Amino acid sequence: MPGTGSRGLVLIVEDEPAIADVLRMYLTREGFGVSVAHDGENALNAARSQHPVAIVMDVGLPGMDGTEVCRQLRAEDNWVPVLFCTARDDEVDRILGLELGGDDYITKPFSPREVVARVKSAVRRSNLSEQLSVTMEVGDVVLDTDARAVTVAGKPVQLTATEFDLLAHLMARPGRVFSRDQLLSEVWGYAAAVGTRTVDVHVAQVRAKLGDASPIRTVRGVGYSVDS
Ligand code: CA
After folding, report:
1. Which residues have a Cβ under 8 Å from the Cβ of 143 and sit 6 or more positions away?
2. What is the Å distance from ligand 1's center to 58 Cα?
3. C-alpha span between 11 and 89 (Å, rounded)
4. Partners of 83 in the β-ladder
5. Which helix (H) or strand (E) holds 84?
6. Where are the domains of the chain?
7. Angle of helix 17-29 versus helix 112-131 axis, rounded to 10
8. CA of 155 to the centre of ligand 1 (A)
9. How far is the centre of ligand 1, averaged over its atoms, from the C-alpha of 103 (Å)?
10. pTM for this entry
């Protein structure tokens, strides 16, 4: 069994040993425990048995690829934050796609420091929203931060950790308009330089899941808001 660091265990799924080693070194130095899986099957088993606080998931793996691993975890109701690593920019939409529930992505070649920063922010987000205890309601949408549950007209809707945090952030401040940069910083914990496409993709996913009941409004040329 891998050791668990004080910040929790991160599962690295990577078939290139040199990349896995570098990531392990950086994450360990930051106080994370690290476990490494080199293919999809082992990744699934590790995710099920080791309960990592986050997964750094290479997309291109021998056999079952990283997106399929994530799809299977979500199908098992496992919503651990997943940071995808991909060498292909054109894969981003598929990676962050609706049924996959990826939380974030980074393109190769990446800086290990950036990966560590992303992991920290994913873990922080999933911890933060567990600490608040509030129920918010806009129209048919009810969001319970304690249970991390969202319902539309009483029916449960399954959101990823990031989708949930984004919706909770907007619903907690009705009437306020957020720029994409603001949301990146406040919800994802990133500097704006990273790019704002992530925000749009996640807003689209939340809307697709909530349907007509979605309270998120696009404010043209500015960003997003939930009506008060
Ligand atoms: Ca690979």
Report:
1. 135, 136, 137, 149, 150, 164, 167, 168, 171
2. 6
3. 23
4. 56, 104
5. strand 82-86
6. 9-126, 129-226
7. 50
8. 39
9. 19
10. 0.63
Q: How far is the CA of 86 from the centre of ligand 1 (A)?
A: 8
Quote the CA–CA distance of 207 and 98 in Å, as a whole number. Answer: 10
CA of 79 to the centre of ligand 1 (A): 23
Cα distance between residue 220 and residue 211, in whole Å: 20
Please give the distance, rounded to the nearest whole angstrom, from the Cα atom of residue 21 to the centre of ligand 1.
14
Q: Was domain 9-126 assigned CATH 3.40.50.2300? A: yes
Residue range 70-96, pLDDT digits in tens: 989 988 878 888 999 988 777 776 666
| Residue labelled with tokens 């309270």 | 215
- Which phi and psi (to 5°) does residue 28 adopt? -65, -40
Residues with C-beta atoms within 5 A of ion ligand 1: 15, 58, 60
Residue 83 CA, ligand 1 centroid: distance in Å: 14
- Alpha helices (H) along the chain: 17-29, 40-50, 66-75, 92-95, 112-131, 161-171, 180-183, 197-210
Interatomic CA distance for residues 83 and 125, integer angstroms: 13
Contacts of 134 (CB under 8 A, 6+ apart): 144, 145, 146, 172
Instruction: Please provide the CATH number assigned to the domain covering 129-226.
Output: 1.10.10.10
How does pLDDT run across 147-178, given as a tens digit for each residue? 889 999 999 999 998 899 899 989 988 888 98
Strand, helix or coil at 14?
A: coil
